[in-house]
Structure formats: structure tokens, C-alpha cells
């Protein structure tokens, strides 16, 4: 090869790159969005890293309408009919390849239900575990939840005595971690006892979310990340593996003995009992993966929901007083039952409204347009295009919620307008929609219905260092509260 060929090859390579950029620019020239997003995914990646993409996404739709380009071939949508087209039962749109980044093992048997993309495979996998997450099954775990609530309140009572400021967001996550651990394995991790991030588990999980969110746009890096993750496994990640393995072994041995009459069984014991029915196809490996997924997703989902409810309630004195009146009239003690709480209409409105204003996930839930393309929002999207809707965007849409879409107004859920209520319910998606709705939804709602009434009735909480209308948070998939400082006092009941 002569030196003269080097400039020639360089020019050819540059020309090819420019041709790709031009083709991308022309292929979706009619769809609005940031200029850089027409040519590269770097714009979206940078916005993700800033930690507030939920608000950027809202502004983009306010400026450009129903369809916004956020990367070449990646589109954020905001439309009621699009919700049905993309997420409804029977939709042909599978999860985007972005979800592959959430599989930290090359073995498909180790993949979480959340990241299974094939529709048939997901349906089969969900069928195996659905009964364990039904509301009737979740209610049977109530003694486990009550145990964690008592430990949590003991910590709050100690803060009342000292008058010290506490990171309430951290403590609510401690509660969520220990509760999901208790439900899953029958034993708490111990976060509520120590009040610290044991073995940096919370930090490690958050780092994994950052890696997965970014790697989903750079899947060519996945083999490298998987190799390095296994090679440089730390004591933090090994702690979870050891705990899960130890508990599984112990529960397997108990499972061989069979449950005693009236014995309270954690979820893994129930899995092991169901395993005897070979038709269900529940392998040890599958049970371990399902249990680990509970810990990874269940703690953040619940902690964020609890934090949002506490934030909006205690920043809204009139709403707080109205809920307290409903709870006081119900003559509740320290131990409240889920069935009792389900009957309280204002409490249910408060929970829905807090999840509307602060859903747990802050990125669009992308799906892949199938062969032959699809028409969505009167726009044709070719095969292989990624389309998705961000719950933060649809939850703040004034066309659905009215001019007060940014305000905390639980009363909107008590309207007599049945058609309006139907549309709002249809557009409420804090746990996703359709067949891919979060499998642990009932567990999160159960914990919220148990803990929020107790906090509201027995504690005065003064939130500090929060001046904005919304709770300070960082969005790296989960929109987690930050600087959620508060002082706590006991409430004097009449």
C-alpha cells in the first residue's frame, strides 16, 4: 500500500460517514427534535447523564407536539391512542433492544422477566410467577410487612426523641429493602437495624442502573461490560449473591420438610412448593433469578412511591388535614389492615395523585416497530424504529389532566365525570401498561397502603431544603429522591 492511498481511503471513509449522517437526516426530516439528535445518540446520552431527562422530555413535547426525535431512529411520543398502539395487550411491538443491556449474564436462563423481549417467552415466564404476585398472595405477606413497619416506626420514634434531621428518602428505601427481602426470603437484610447502606448495596444497584441505561444505546459494549463485571466483582455485589444463595439453600431444606399448618411462607418457599408441579417449569435457577429481581426492582419502586406521597402530602397542609380526618374517622390503631385502607377513597386518591406527579421511571419505555412498519399518531414508522412514551410526559399533559396538571390535586380522582376518570385511569402508568406492567405492582401498592396511613396519622413531618414544587430527584432510569431531609415529631391524637 502506498502513502497516496491513505488520504484516498480517509476521504472515502469520511464520505461514507457523511453519507450515513445525511441519510439519517433526510429519512426523518419532518419529525422535530434537537438538531444533534438527528445525527447521533450522543445528545440523548448526554441528557440522560444530566439526571433530569423527565423535565427535558416534557419541554420537548410542549415545544414540538406529539412526536419528538431524541436520537436517530428513536422517538418519544405523547398521545392517548399511541398508548394503546404501543403497550396494549396484543400489540406486536416488542421491547426495544435497549433492554438487552439489563441482562448481566449471557445465559438467557438468567434473564429477568423485565428484560425478556420475545412476547411468547415473556408470556410463558410471567405465567410461571403470576400467582405469587396476585393481590391475594400479597395480602398473605401482611405479617412480614407489619414486622418491618414496627421496626421502621421504632427508628422514627428515636428521631422524635433526638429532634435530629434525617434523610427520609434513605430511611424509606431502608424500609423498602427490608420489606421486599422479608417477603421474598422471610428475613430482612438489616437496613432498618443499622440505618446504613449495607455493603453499599443501594449504591451498587444505582450504578448498575446508570450502566444499563447508557449501555442500552451502545450495545456493542455489552460483552466488555459483562466480562469486566464478572472479573472485577466486588464484595458489594458478592454480598447479595451470598445472601440470596444462603437463603435459597435454607429455604430449599425447609421445603423438603413441607410447610406446617398455618406456617407463614415467604415467596421463595412458595416457589419451591409450586416447583413440585413439573408442568410449571420452575427450575432452581429461575426461582433464584425471580427472587433477585424482587430485590433489584422492588426496593426502588416502592421507596420512590412512598417518598413522593410523603413529600406532596406534607407540602400540602389542606390535603394532609383532609386525609387525617378520613383516617381518624376510621378509628385506626397502629396496625392497619390493607382491606381497611382499600375502602378509604381519599387515601386512594392521594396515592394515585402522588404516583402521577412522580412516577418511578423517568425514561420512555421503548418498543421496536415490527416488520412492515406501523402507523402511530398518523405517522408511519419503518421497521426497526424505536418508539416509546415517558410516563412523566403523559402524566403532565394538560390535555388529559387540565391546567393544573403540575399541581397535587387528589380531588381530581374523586370526580363524578366517569368519562374523564376512564381516560385518567387509562393514562396512569407508574408501573407501565399492558402485558409488560411491572409484576411487583401489587407489592408496592400494598406497602404504600400500609405505611402511608400510619405516618400521616401518627407523625408530623417537616420537610427541609426543598423549595421547588416537585421533590428533588436524580433520574438515571429510576427518579430517586435526593436531599430529602426532614425533622419528625409525634402527632398528638385527640
Automatic annotation (TrEMBL):
For this chain, one GO molecular function annotation is: oxidoreductase activity, acting on paired donors, with incorporation or reduction of molecular oxygen
Q: Which InterPro entries match?
A: Cyt_P450, Cyt_P450_E_grp-I, Cyt_P450_sf, Cytochrome_P450_monoxygenase
Q: CDD domains this protein is in? A: CYP57A1-like (cd11060)
Give me the segments passing through the membrane.
209-233
Q: Which cofactor does it need?
A: heme
Note the Gene3D superfamilies from the entry: Cytochrome P450
* Pfam families assigned to the protein according to its UniProt record, in alphabetical order: p450 (PF00067)
Q: Which UniProt keywords apply?
A: Heme, Iron, Membrane, Metal-binding, Monooxygenase, Oxidoreductase, Transmembrane, Transmembrane helix
On whether Iron is a keyword of this UniProt record, the answer is yes
The organism sits in which domain of life? Eukaryota
Family statement drawn from the similarity comment of this UniProt entry: Belongs to the cytochrome P450 family.
**Designated name of the protein:** Cytochrome P450
Amino acid at each position: 500500500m502506498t502513502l497516496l492511498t491513505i488520504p484516498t481511503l480517509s476521504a472515502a471513509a469520511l464520505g461514507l460517514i457523511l453519507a450515513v449522517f445525511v441519510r439519517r437526516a433526510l429519512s426523518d426530516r419532518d419529525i422535530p427534535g434537537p438538531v444533534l439528535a438527528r445525527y447521533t445518540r450522543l445528545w440523548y446520552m448526554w441528557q440522560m447523564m444530566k439526571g433530569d431527562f423527565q423535565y427535558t422530555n416534557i419541554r420537548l413535547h410542549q415545544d414540538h407536539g406529539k412526536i419528538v426525535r431524541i436520537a436517530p431512529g428513536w422517538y418519544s411520543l405523547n398521545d392517548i391512542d399511541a398508548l394503546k398502539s404501543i403497550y396494549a395487550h396484543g400489540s406486536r411491538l416488542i421491547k426495544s433492544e435497549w433492554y438487552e443491556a439489563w441482562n448481566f449474564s449471557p445465559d438467557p436462563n438468567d434473564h429477568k422477566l423485565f428484560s425478556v423481549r420475545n412476547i411468547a417467552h415473556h408470556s410463558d415466564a410471567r405465567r410461571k410467577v403470576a400467582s405469587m404476585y396476585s393481590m391475594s398472595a400479597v395480602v398473605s405477606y401482611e405479617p412480614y410487612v407489619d414486622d418491618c413497619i414496627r421496626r421502621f416506626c421504632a427508628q422514627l420514634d428515636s428521631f422524635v426523641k433526638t429532634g435530629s434531621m434525617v434523610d427520609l428518602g434513605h430511611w424509606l428505601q431502608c424500609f423498602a429493602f427490608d420489606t421486599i427481602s422479608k417477603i421474598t426470603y422471610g428475613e430482612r437484610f438489616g437496613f432498618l437495624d443499622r440505618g446504613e447502606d449495607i455493603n453499599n448495596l443501594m449504591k451498587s444497584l444505582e450504578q448498575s442502573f446508570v450502566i444499563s441505561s447508557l449501555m442500552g444505546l451502545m450495545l456493542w459494549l455489552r460483552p466488555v461490560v459483562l466480562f469486566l463485571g464478572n472479573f472485577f466483582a466486588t464484595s458489594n455485589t458478592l454480598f447479595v449473591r451470598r445472601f440470596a444463595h444462603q437463603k435459597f439453600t435454607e429455604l430449599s431444606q425447609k421445603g423438603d420438610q413441607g410447610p406446617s399448618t398455618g406456617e407463614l411462607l415467604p415467596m421463595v418457599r412458595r416457589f419451591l412448593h409450586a416447583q413440585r408441579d413439573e408442568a410449571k417449569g420452575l427450575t432452581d435457577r429461575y426461582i433464584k433469578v425471580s427472587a433477585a429481581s424482587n430485590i433489584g426492582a422492588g426496593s426502588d419502586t416502592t421507596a420512590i412511591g412512598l417518598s413522593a406521597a410523603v413529600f406532596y402530602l406534607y407540602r400540602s397542609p389542606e390535603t394532609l388535614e383532609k386525609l387525617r380526618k378520613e383516617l381518624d374517622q376510621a378509628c385506626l390503631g397502629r396496625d392497619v389492615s390493607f382491606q381497611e385502607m382499600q375502602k378509604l377513597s381519599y387515601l386512594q386518591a392521594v396515592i394515585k395523585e402522588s404516583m402521577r406527579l412522580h412516577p418511578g421511571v423517568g425514561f420512555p419505555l421503548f418498543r421496536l416497530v415490527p416488520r412492515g412498519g406501523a402507523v402511530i399518531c398518523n405517522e408511519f414508522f419503518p421497521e426497526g424504529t424505536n418508539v416509546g412514551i415517558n410516563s412523566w410526559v403523559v402524566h403532565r399533559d394538560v390535555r388529559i389532566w387540565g391546567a393544573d396538571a403540575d399541581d397535587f390535586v387528589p380531588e381530581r380522582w374523586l370526580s363524578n365525570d366517569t368519562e374523564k376518570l376512564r381516560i385518567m385511569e387509562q393514562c396512569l402508568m407508574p408501573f407501565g401498561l399492558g402485558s409488560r406492567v411491572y409484576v411487583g405492582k401489587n407489592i408496592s401498592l400494598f406497602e404504600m397502603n400500609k405505611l402511608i396511613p400510619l405516618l400521616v396519622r401518627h407523625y408530623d413531618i417537616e420537610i427541609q431544603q426543598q423549595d421547588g414544587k416537585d421533590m428533588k430527584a436524580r433520574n438515571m432510569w429510576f427518579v430517586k429522591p435526593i436531599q430529602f431531609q426532614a425533622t419528625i415529631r409525634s402527632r398528638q391524637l385527640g
